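[step 3/7] fold_predict: job queued, chain A
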Amino acid sequence: MGLTVVTIGTSLPELAASVAATRRGEHEMALGNVIGSNIINTLAVVAIAATLHPMYVEPVVLQTDVLFMGILTVSLFLVGYRHRADGRINRVEGLLFFASYVA
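[step 4/7] structure written:
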């Protein structure tokens, strides 16, 4: 339970900044905020934690997460590539990405 509270607490500022940027029409800022925050959370936080106290991660967790993140990365690239002319992601695509985030 504590990890969930910490996760929500660290994600709320990025969520608020992305929502505010989107409302102002600064969609690139919102997307950059999301991507940058995920890169920092994935690489820096895990690296710092592992440096301070080495941790064991089950191989099945790594295999599942790498596959899932790879699929999401390719999906985001394809959606972005498909919409490069008008620069829009529609509601259905947004909901699919949100559902994959929740999963």
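[step 5/7] annotate
The mean pLDDT is 80.
The chain has two domains: 1-55, 56-103.
exit 0
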